[in-house]
Design brief:
The protein contains 19 helices and two strands. By secondary structure, it is mostly helical. The chain has two domains: about 270 residues, Orthogonal Bundle (Hypothetical protein af1432), CATH 1.10.3210.10; about 70 residues. It has a two-stranded antiparallel sheet. Helix 2 runs parallel beside helix 5, helix 5 packs across helix 8 and helix 7 packs antiparallel against helix 8. It is globular and about 70 Å long.
């Protein structure tokens, strides 16, 4: 039974959204991909509910032990996946606030955008993609896996209810392909989204050029770049890889010398260049400098041989674990950790409908950095028996 307070709260939410930009996506237009089982909360919009849903997932909790760019370091002051996601959310909501977009939708997309990222950052993603290709099960892209985690893997395989607009924003968030202007793909249907999702599971490059269906999705796509581009430089400085003075003068004089300056410059230019328009974008000067900064980061940080010295070992670890889990799955060895930690309570005939190689990839993609290392040590390093075979 509805109470007066419930009705008043809904009116407050409605009135707040009625003042949003004509380019914003309203919560009343949210499309549910999975039927809701819980009673709607009067305190949350549809997209606010998605925020709550995502934060309650086991996949979200594992952000805390997944690295962003720099792995195998003991320095606790460098960015991990959980902190990156918070940066993206804050930056995207700041953009949305000034452009009068839907901040609940922005937050939901932001918090869920990297759920599918495996251990060891993009290195782990690249390895799982090669494993998927080698085993004939398509591709592996972290943004597609993020959607898969929500719709197909969480809740023991039944999935959790999130809106089409949120799932679409997560799938389309990949910021590898920088653009000066980001136009939303308005009127995208659920069928179109599912087709893009399916193609992204088959081709690693497909999702890089997907356009979000909302301006809010565009805000997150851009915020992802803004969140990492300067922060990665600060992390590299903490790790004594580069110095602030390493940034070429032609870039620093436009964007700034440190993360705070770079972030402020990019956000300010984006807001002023996008206000009142049907797209989000940068001025030509700022966009040109941003492209050069990204090129600088790839050359001096991401492809730096100093942080790639352990890559062969990481590749070997992933492949050995994959082979072992795959063998256990084929043999139906329920004493294996893939059954104990992943398949034990899974419903919806997941293991019957899913190719064994994809099952193993799903399991490995869910692992945190420490979990996958612990698994490798447990399964491939000899165990010390202690003082005797039988404990006294």
């Amino acid at each position: 039974m509805k109470t007066d307070s419930d009705i008043n709260l809904k009116n407050l939410l409605f009135n707040k959204e009625s003042n949003l930009s004509k380019f914003a996506c309203l919560s009343k237009d949210a499309v549910d991909l999975i039927p809701l089982t819980d009673k709607a909360s009067p305190y949350r919009t549809s997209f606010g509910r998605d925020v709550h849903t995502i934060m309650q997932t086991n996949t979200y909790a594992r952000y805390m032990d997944k690295t962003q760019v720099f792995y195998l370091f003991s320095n606790q002051h460098i960015t991990h996946r959980s902190l990156h996601v918070q940066f993206v959310s804050y930056i995207a909501r700041t953009i949305g606030r000034f452009l009068n977009l839907n901040e609940d939708l922005i937050e939901a997309i932001s918090l869920g955008h990297d759920l599918g990222h495996p251990a060891f950052g993009h290195e782990g993603e690249s390895i799982l993609n090669s494993i998927a290709f080698e085993n004939g099960v398509g591709a592996f892209a972290h943004n597609a896996q993020s959607v898969r985690a929500l719709l197909n893997l969480e809740n023991n395989g039944l999935g959790v209810p999130v809106s089409l607009q949120v799932a679409d924003g997560i799938l389309a968030h990949n910021g590898e392909m920088l653009q000066q202007q980001y136009y939303p793909c308005l009127n995208k249907t659920a069928n179109q989204f599912y087709k893009e999702f399916e193609l992204s599971m088959k081709d690693e490059n497909h999702s890089k050029n997907i356009r979000p269906m909302t301006m809010e999705g565009c805000a997150v796509k851009i915020a992802d770049v803004i969140a990492y581009i300067g922060r990665d430089i600060e992390d590299a400085i903490k790790l004594k890889m580069i110095k602030h003075s390493s940034i070429p003068r032609e870039i620093s004089k436009v964007l700034g010398q440190n993360n705070d300056q770079i972030t402020e410059t990019l956000i300010g230019d984006l807001i002023s260049s996008s206000y009142g328009k049907e797209y989000l974008g940068f001025s030509m000067e700022i966009f040109s400098a941003l492209c050069k900064l990204k090129e600088f980061n790839y050359k001096t940080i991401y492809f730096n041989p100093l942080i790639k010295s352990e890559s062969k070992k990481i590749h070997r670890m992933f492949h050995l674990l994959f082979d072992l889990y795959f063998e256990s799955l084929i043999k139906e060895d329920e004493s294996s950790d893939i059954f104990i930690h992943f398949l034990k309570d899974r419903k919806n005939d997941y293991n019957k409908k899913t190719d064994p190689a994809r099952v193993v990839i799903d399991f490995m993609a869910s692992m945190t950095d420490s979990f996958i290392v612990n698994q490798f040590n447990k399964l491939f390093f000899p165990k010390n028996f202690g003082y005797s075979i039988l404990s006294e």
